[in-house]
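Per reviewer request, we include the raw input and output of the structure prediction for the construct analysed in the revised manuscript.
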Amino acid sequence: MSGKSVIFFDIDGTLLDHDKNLPTSTKKAIKKLKLDGHIVAIATGRAPFMYEDLREELGIDTYVSYNGQFVVVEGEIVYTNPLNLEALEELTAVGLSKDHPIVYMDDKDMKTNVPSHEFISESIATLKIKQFPTHDPNYYKDREIYQSLFFCTEGEEKFYQEKFPLFDFVRWHPVSVDVVPKGGSKANGIKQAMKAIGISEDNQYAFGDGLNDLEMLSTVTHSVAMGNAKEEVKAVSKYITKDVDQDGIVHGLELVGLLEK
């Protein structure tokens, strides 16, 4: 494959600003990276269908979705890591008994196990995506589910972490957590992508801001935390750039020497 380096970008709060818009400066910077022969990739907790428009706009065909559970390199699926079906079924049942609904997600769609719930509406709305999950409580039974959204308030996930050792629960919203296979992370997804891409660790870069970026920014050689990142994220990153709303991507690429100042 061509390309001097590979740069993985998180989406929310990194590529997209706080209003879920793509800054003009970021779009120009990514175009320049590609012209210089670099591979620009995405590493996100989002489902592939949640950012098709963004991939098309930026000309990106290498991406790590679902926090590492669904990996595509140059348009080809190279790695999948679905949730354990029996444990998912039990999580669903326990959650229902506590009024904690769930959304099942594969690479094509997402479905809820309840007709409606305020936590689902509240958290999904913040993503500002076209697609909203519809009701199908049996959706998980005949397909691979790579991630689920589980809805509970902060702190309530501790009970589930202890009860379901096959899963990791990563909070992304005050009323919602991502449910991924134990040990599944963007870092592992990037590792799987790198097997296909074949670029040395010295030429790997990653930008992020959220708790689901911790493993990625702890392991990728050149890690950049956004100025709006959580303090835990900044603590594990080699570089800290400006806020996403202050041309943070451009500044970060200058910091690591991928763009000239």
